[in-house]
Automatic annotation (TrEMBL):
Keyword Membrane: yes
Sequence intervals crossing the membrane: 20-48
Pfam families referenced in this protein's UniProt entry, alphabetically: Acyltransferase
Keyword Transferase on entry: yes
Domain Phospholipid/glycerol acyltransferase, chain residue ranges per copy: 95-203
SUPFAM superfamilies, per database record: Glycerol-3-phosphate (1)-acyltransferase (SSF69593)
Keywords, in A-Z order: Acyltransferase, Membrane, Transferase, Transmembrane, Transmembrane helix
Protein known as: 1-acyl-sn-glycerol-3-phosphate acyltransferase
Domain of life: Bacteria
Organism (species): Pseudomonas benzenivorans
InterPro entries for the chain: Plipid/glycerol_acylTrfase
SMART domains, per database record: PlsC
Length: 265
């Protein structure tokens, strides 16, 4: 198993005041970076030769590298430490990556470690001035909740793309177990070759749904990402038609995440 881990530059956490400043700088850097990608980087990439698929891949690789630099910035400035287990099994053709969603930066870390990934993102981000440029250049899928969205997501998997989905649809409420919507499982049984669960834990909790960015913990937080064993969606289709298969797969995933997250408590 490949293990990427950065536990920090020293045994001691950086002072609270510095971590607050570094967190603010991180968010400022993220916003400015998104605008620069939209205004400068992607227009230049669009001038390079290639069809729409090649241009999309270039955009996704650029975003992945930018997100990796962002995670490194947060680590180097003392905001976080991180640990990624099983990273070598991410990014395979037709792979659907299903993850829980405890913090604001979950998708950032996942994309940072997957070179060419599609992703289902919130509809509101399509109009965000910092994010809409990267989202549209990468061809990410809007989480509109429509049947068209399910078809588009399934088609991306059938076409050999890696797709990241957060079945909760929003960040987990602190202190509560994740609640999965069945849409992710419905996409999986329609188009995924394999389903790979990724369990994310953040200790102490921060950047949750209930906390503003400036409500930082008393020490720098540790971000842990664990890649689980592959699941074959065909095994659930063998148990009945697609609606039944998606329900059973959703229940299986839900129980898997509850069990795995309980081990982190």
């Amino acid at each position: 198993m490949d293990l990427v881990t950065h536990h920090g530059l020293s045994r001691h956490s950086a002072p609270y005041g510095w971590r607050l400043i570094a967190t603010a700088l991180s968010f400022a850097l993220f916003g400015i970076g998104g605008v620069l990608l939209r205004a400068l980087v992607f227009p230049l990439l669009a001038l390079l030769p290639g069809d729409s698929t090649i241009h999309r891949t270039r955009a996704r690789v650029t975003i992945s590298r930018a997100f990796r630099l962002f995670v490194q910035f947060m680590f180097r400035t003392g905001v976080l430490t991180y640990e990624v287990e099983g990273v070598e099994r991410l990014g395979r053709p037709g792979q659907m990556v299903i993850a829980n969603h405890p913090s604001l930066i979950d998708v950032v870390v996942l994309i940072a470690f997957i070179r060419d990934a599609n992703c289902v993102v919130k509809q509101s981000l399509w109009d965000n001035p910092c994010m809409r440029g990267p989202i549209r250049a990468a061809g990410y899928i809007s989480n509109s909740g429509s049947l068209d969205m399910l078809d588009e997501a399934a088609a991306s998997l059938q076409g050999g793309q890696t797709l990241i989905v957060f079945p909760e649809g929003t960040r987990t409420t602190p202190g509560q177990a994740p609640q999965f919507h069945r849409g992710a499982a419905a996409i999986a049984v329609r188009g995924a070759r394999i389903v790979t669960p990724v369990v994310i834990s953040v200790t102490p909790t921060t950047l949750t749904k209930a906390e503003p960015w400036y409500s930082i913990p008393s020490r720098r937080f540790h971000f842990r990402l664990r890649v689980g064993q592959d699941i074959d969606p065909q095994a659930f289709l063998a148990q009945g038609p697609a609606p039944i298969a998606s329900r059973k797969l959703n229940e299986h995933l839900h129980q898997h995440f509850i069990k795995e997250l309980a081990q982190d408590e």
